[in-house]
Amino acid sequence: MLLKCHYLPSLGTSQPVWKKPRLLSGGFFSSLGLLLLLLSSLHAESEVKEIHVMVGSDVEFGCLYPDRNHFSLNDQVFVYWQIENPQTVVAYYLSNESTGVYEDDRYKNRAHLSLERMKQGDFSLHLQNVTPQDNQEFTCLIFNNAEKVLHETVRLHVAANFSTPVISTSGPVTPDQEGLTLTCISRNGYPKPNLYWINLTDNSLIDEALQNNTVSLNEWGLYDVISTLTVPWVARVNVSCSIENVVLHQNLTSISQAEKSTGNNDSFTGNLQEHRSQNAIFIILPLLLVVAGAIVAWVCRAKCAHRRYKGPWTVSREHTVLGRIISLSPKLKH
Questions:
Q1: Most exposed among 4, 35, 173, 196, judged by the fewest C-beta atoms under 10 Å?
Q2: How far apart are CA 159 and CA 54, in angstroms?
Q3: Closest CA to 155 of 140, 177, 170
Q4: Cα 286 to Cα 160: distance, rounded to the nearest angstrom
């Protein structure tokens, strides 16, 4: 196979780089010049455009040649769209290659350059089915006859809605056990969220020392968050769990329903000693009522038994009276 000489620009040099056309596993040509281009050109100064997009949607990164009426794709034109993390050429076009446009395997069937639009000086990249991994900068580099004629950078901000927080509660078996645990769960959001527990009694943030937050990436590259909050045992807990998505300027909030399981109007204030005193009252008062009821029942039973049974001497007395009545009955006949 013959070697071809391509003028692939690199930092501080325009010397030709010899390369042998050879397809790699990713469909890219092995080229020292291409590697140097990737490493050296990413940090070049350019105005960064900001784009916000939702996961799963499509987006287009603009890259337009300023004087489109005097641009010809028939010249020696190299078009590169690349990212820095990891350093990858997303898609590229070489005017002197018959096979046309190439895409990296990770962007296969997702990243597209239009040959017809490039003929008009429009090198915009169309990206389909955006994923969380696309949350980074995309750089467009256009070279014409070994001279860089266009450099555009687009910062893509990817976001996904979190599910509405779900709060569940689990308390001690008996009120004398310390701690009521509330669990807040929200899933499939992006980027990493901020989570807040709020005491609705005075709308204050609850101390993070009472919380245990776990944030993890799931199989889709989205974030799941699970937070547990442990508060003193009270008859009513009035708190809310809020998930903040900074990119979407969004707060999703759910309110605890723990107060429905009790009828007392006390609420969580964060004062552990105060709640322990209240708990002691709630425990002692029912015990006193039980003891008082037992005493009353015992007294009542003793009185009732005394009225029903008058002792064995009453039975003997009744027999004596009956015998006298029988002995007098003949005398009464005479």
A1: 173
A2: 5
A3: 140
A4: 52
Q: Over pLDDT 70: what percentage of the chain?
A: 62
Burial of 28 (0-12, 13-18, 19+ CB in 10 A): middle
Pull the structure tokens for residue 242: 């809020």
Query: Is 289 a residue whose pLDDT tops 70?
Result: yes
Q: Which of 98-102, 109-113, 180-184 bottoms out in mean pLDDT, i.e. has the lowest?
A: 98-102
- Give tens-digit pLDDT for 152-175: 999 999 999 999 999 998 866 555
Contact 206, 184 (CB under 8 A): no
- What does the block give as tokens for 246? 């900074």
Section 270-293 average pLDDT: 63
Kindly tell me if the per-residue pLDDT of 123 is higher than 90: yes
Cα-Cα-Cα-Cα torsion 27, 31, 34, 35, nearest 10 degrees, comes to 100
Q: According to the model, what pLDDT value does residue 85 have?
A: 84
Question: Are 95 and 21 within 8 A, CB to CB?
Answer: no
pLDDT at 69: 67
127-141: burial string, b at 16+ Cβ within 10 Å, e else = beebbbebbebbbbb
| 71-109 burial code (b ≥16 CB/10 A, e <16) | bebeeebbbbbbbeeeebbbbbbbbeeeeebbbbeebee
Q: Which residues contact 263 (CB under 8 A, 6 or more apart)?
A: 235
Asked if 118 contacts 124 with a C-beta cutoff of 8 angstroms, the reply is no
Phi-psi region of 261 (alpha: psi -120 to 50; beta: other; left: phi over 0): alpha
Structure tokens at 51: 């784009």
The label of the residue with tokens 């199989």 reads 219
**Rounded CA gap, 148 and 153, in Å?**
14
Closest CA to 249 of 161, 155, 130: 161
- How many distinct helices (H) and strands (E) make up the chain? 4, 19
